[in-house]
Amino acid sequence: MLVHKAAITAHNETHYAQHAKALAALKDRIADPERVIKLVQEFQVAIPSWALGTGGTRFGRFPGGGEPRSLEEKIEDVALLHRLNQGSGAISLHIPWDIPSNPKAIRELASSHGLRFDAVNSNTFQDQPGQAHSYKFGSLQHLNEQVRRQAIEHNMEVIRHGEALGSQALTVWLSDGSCFPGQLNFRKAFQRTLESLQEIYAALPKDWKMFVEYKAFEPNFYSMTVGDWGQSYLYASKLGPQAYTLVDLGHHLPNANIEQIVSLLLMEGKLAGFHFNDSKYGDDDLTVGSINPYQLFLIFNELVEGMDARGMNHAADLGWMIDASHNVKDPLEDLLQSVEAIRLAYAQALLVDQAALRQAQENNDVAAAQEILQEVYRTDLRPLVAEARLRSGGALRPLDLFREAGVRKALIAQRGYHAHTTGL
Ligand code: RM4
Ligand code: MN
Ligand code: MN
């Protein structure tokens, strides 16, 4: 481990006085800070195994070195994040990018670092070397029965890998769709996809969930067969009680009201959880909270209100995952920033005065409603989130410590500059 516990203690001692002052001032201003600290401590976000290296675009890739070369090294990277922030206690794997050669050993390694496995992801959007049939014209929607069979069997294999690791959900994201008008019969494509999903659903262990992820466009540019939350919801409700709709924040058309989508999916008991990221234009996969932190807060406001209305456990009842790609930042720094942004938005939402908001809504007091939301949003809650980290044994300032400890330099020395991880 590149950052020892002693280094965290020393770091925290340096920053403690300043932190304690900021925390005390904040505690004076807000209701029940202890509750928020405790809930934030419990709130863990899964790190995507495919985002531990440098991402890229179709134009180029500019790696920064020291990327994890194996699943073991990916787990070490997530363990490092978790040690620093005590908020990244899970990892989400993508198959076949991360097939564990020795599942028992991988499971033990993860749990020795306090990590569990969140949803496993299947991949029928790329052709793998030696694969019998191509996914060029889709996978679960394909006209050819043999292609569909191959894709169905791949999903079943992903479930088996997940079972060996203690995962309890399968995320299916399909790139299926069409690039040009007339290419596809929408209804028949939907029906073939549904039938394929039904076979996969039938193979789900009883305590598993299926997450059906939607995306508006890319790589297909005219239609996507699971293109929006309505379509995902249709599949999920036809599939049955173990199927849910997964929201990836970057998968909407511009300006979509994601918080409203979240509220209604929760109302129907059909929200799977999230792939967090941020975007300005499309599926930009940027650091969570880097472009539109207010939207993130509004989403969490609906989440907290909606989960409480259904008596749900905030930390455990939905899947909380990041799905990002880092083109210019150090991937680990980017992920530290993302987890911080998520926990901050969660803390803010916990402090919304729901009773006052309800009253404002009932009185059509629009100005008051805005004041209530922005009162919390504009309060700097970072000391609360830092306190949650501190109490769990993490660092007061994870990103600073990551830099002070020279983690990236050490990773490059260990793994080499040209180490290249699997993923996007
Ligand atoms: C997709 C989608 C999926 C992710 C792949 C790598 O755009 O967001 O969730 O598994 O990218
Ligand atoms: Mn995603
Ligand atoms: Mn995406």
UniProtKB/TrEMBL annotation:
GO molecular-function terms, A-Z: isomerase activity; metal ion binding
Record-linked InterPro entries: L-rhamnose_isomerase, Xyl_isomerase-like_sf
Keyword field: Isomerase, Manganese, Metal-binding
Name this protein carries in UniProt: L-rhamnose isomerase / sugar isomerase
